[in-house]
Amino acid sequence: xxxxxxxxxxxxxxxIGVKAQSKSQIAIADSTNYKSSKLKLxxxxxxxxxxxxxxxxxxVTGGIGTEKLTDFANTFDVQVSKxxxxxxxxxxxxxxxxDHYSSASSDKxxxxxISSASSADTRVYPSINWSQSNETTGNSFGxxxxxxxxxxxxxxxxxxxxxxxxxxxxxxxxxxxxxxxDSWTVILPIELRTGNGKSNEESGGGTSPRxxxxxxxxxxxxxxxxxxAAVIVEPAYQHGLLATKYQRNYFTDGSMxxxxxxxxxxxxPIALRLNYFPDDRFIVRAFYRYYMDNWGxxxxxxELEVPVKLSSFISVSPFYRYNKQTxxxxxxxxxxxxxxxxxxxxxxxxxxxxxDFYGIGIRLSxxxxxxxxxxxxxxxxxxxxYSRSTKLTSNIIxxxxxxx
Length: 404
Known about the structure:
Helix content: under 10%
Number of domains: 1
CATH architecture: Beta Barrel
Order of helices and strands: HEEEEEEEHEEEEEEEEEEEEE
Structural class: mainly beta
Distance between the termini: 36 Å
CATH class: Mainly Beta
Radius of gyration: 23 Å
């Protein structure tokens, strides 16, 4: 069920990305004259979003039926820091997220019930990050631990990150290593469960592991005063139960089985990011990514965002993203799977498609605080509309508040 958070995560990532970029522009302080300092509260962030989608290609019912879904997501984080005796800055970031969704398609896992347990769920995901940075060189490293839990899914994660800057600060290398060890309950459609004349293998039950490992290599370069570029490579590997077993698949002979996919997957996204500053009022942010995996999926994604500063503390950011995807060889629509196939899915997220995502954001950061509240340093509101060739559409609105 985790894939339903895709569009929410994309929007939250966009907001967080803007926040991260503003941090990188802070002038590096001189820490040579160290003075004993107490733990300092750097900032507090609250991000809330509401997401709604609709469509008629539900994978739960074999590629047909409602995809109506709503999700209300909230994250809250607190960042504190302290200089040690060597002038190194130690930073702790505590974050907790709570999402609640309702899904009409998930309610079809067992349509004989008034409302199945999986028709709505709440996900809780706390994390903690510790990092140490050299305020003079800009170099840093850190570790992250995370946990996520929902009705049929639990995940434990760990990560290591490293940043190195050149002597003139014009070149930056970032490395990140992540691992997620997941366990989720095997839930089958009601027709395939024990007690309906099915074998133990068909009925499933219990829990199965799914482990994910990924790395990220990023090289950023200041080309001149107006242009910055970055190349990003993010290889990943997954192993375990990668199929969603409560999703039905229908075959040309009239039979039905639970989705079955290979138990390993390699992914390789390669991206290029360009930031251009034509003057003090405009920024042009361009992004391109090519994606490939061993399931046969190939995708091209292009994105453009143009923040415009209306005044010293108000800016608007229209954005547009286009995606074109060649689907996996294991996909087929309702009733078109070959009965002799070893792997099969009718999940349209894995099909051949193209999509558009566009919207606008507005950001307020007055010197005396938002609405005159000195501690409320920044308010950002973003809206996005998503549509794709499979007729799925969605809307999302997000609010980001920063307190300092």
